[in-house]
Specification:
Length: 257
C-alpha cells in the first residue's frame, strides 16, 4: 500500500464485529485487543450505547491503557463515548428537540396504524426515543430473529411506512433501518457524519483512517464512509473481519511501524 500510514481503524458493529445484536465472538475480541495495542480504534453503529456495552465492552475486558484508545460512536456519531480513566463516559450527545421527537413518535404510530403495520403481538417497545434518534421496531426491540425475518422479507412494508412518514416530517431524515425498523434522525446523519466528527475528536485526518464494514455496497449503511474517501475493506460477516485483521491489517500495521 502506497497511501498514507494508517493511524486509526474504525469498524461497523453488526455483522462486521459480531452477529447482529450479539456479543463479540472470542476471536474478534482477541484481535481487537491486539489492534488497540497498535492504533486507536473506533466502533460506529446506528445502534445505541446499551448495545455497545452488551456487544463490545462486556466482551473486551480492556486494560486502562487500551481502553483509552477506544472511541465509541453510537447512533452514527451523534453520541460519543470515551474512557475517562474509570469508565466509558458520554462526551456528548446531539439530541433532537422535544418538538421534533414528539412529531416523529406521533407520525410513526399514526402511519403504522393507517397502513395496518401496528402489531398486537410484540416483544418490548415498538417506539423508542433514543434522544438523537427515534426508532420504530414493528415487532418490538426484543423480537426473535425468526419473527423479524418473516415480517417483511421484501422490505415493502417498512418502505411504505418510511415513505408515508417522510412526507410528514420534511425537516427530518426518515430511513429504513434493520429488518423491521424505521429510524428518524436529524438530516445528514450517517456514518460519514460520525467519521468527519472523529477527525477532530481523535486528531487523525480522514486520509490516515481505515474503515471495515459489511454494507459498503450502494445503498448500504456503511457506504457513506467509502463515498467520503476513507480507505475501506468490505467483509461478509465477523469471520471475514477476523481473517482480514489477522492476515492483512495487523501485519500491515507491524510493517508500517
Ligand atoms: Mg453492519
Amino acid at each position: 500500500m502506497t497511501d498514507a500510514p494508517i493511524r486509526l481503524v474504525a469498524f461497523d458493529l453488526d455483522d462486521t464485529l459480531a452477529p447482529s445484536k450479539s456479543p463479540l465472538p472470542d476471536p474478534v475480541a482477541d484481535l481487537l485487543r491486539r489492534l488497540l495495542a497498535r492504533v486507536p480504534v473506533c466502533v460506529i453503529s446506528g445502534g445505541q450505547y446499551a448495545q455497545f456495552r452488551h456487544q463490545v465492552l462486556d466482551r473486551l475486558e480492556l486494560t486502562p491503557e487500551l481502553a483509552a484508545r477506544l472511541h465509541l460512536m453510537p447512533t452514527c456519531g451523534t453520541q460519543y463515548y470515551r474512557w475517562d480513566g474509570t469508565e466509558f463516559a458520554q462526551v456528548y450527545a446531539e439530541t433532537l428537540t422535544e418538538a421534533e421527537r414528539d412529531a416523529a413518535l406521533a407520525a410513526l404510530e399514526e402511519q403504522a396504524r393507517a397502513l395496518g403495520l401496528w402489531e398486537t403481538q410484540t416483544w418490548g417497545p415498538v417506539l423508542e426515543d433514543r434522544g438523537s434518534q427515534i426508532t420504530f421496531s414493528a415487532l418490538g426491540q426484543a423480537a426473535p430473529v425468526d419473527a423479524k425475518a418473516a415480517w417483511d422479507p421484501t422490505g415493502a412494508r417498512k418502505g411504505a411506512l418510511r415513505d408515508a412518514v417522510a412526507v410528514l416530517l420534511p425537516d427530518l431524515e426518515v430511513r429504513s433501518g434493520g429488518s423491521t425498523s424505521v429510524d428518524i434522525t436529524r438530516k445528514g446523519i450517517d456514518k460519514a457524519y460520525g467519521m468527519r466528527a472523529l477527525v477532530d475528536l481523535a486528531g487523525v485526518p480522514l486520509a490516515e483512517m481505515f474503515f471495515v464494514g459489511d454494507r459498503l455496497d450502494e445503498g448500504g449503511n456503511d457506504r457513506p464512509v467509502l463515498d467520503l474517501g476513507v480507505r475501506c475493506h468490505a467483509v461478509d460477516g465477523w469471520e471475514g473481519t477476523v481473517a482480514y485483521l489477522r492476515d492483512e491489517l495487523l501485519p500491515l500495521l507491524d510493517a508500517q511501524g
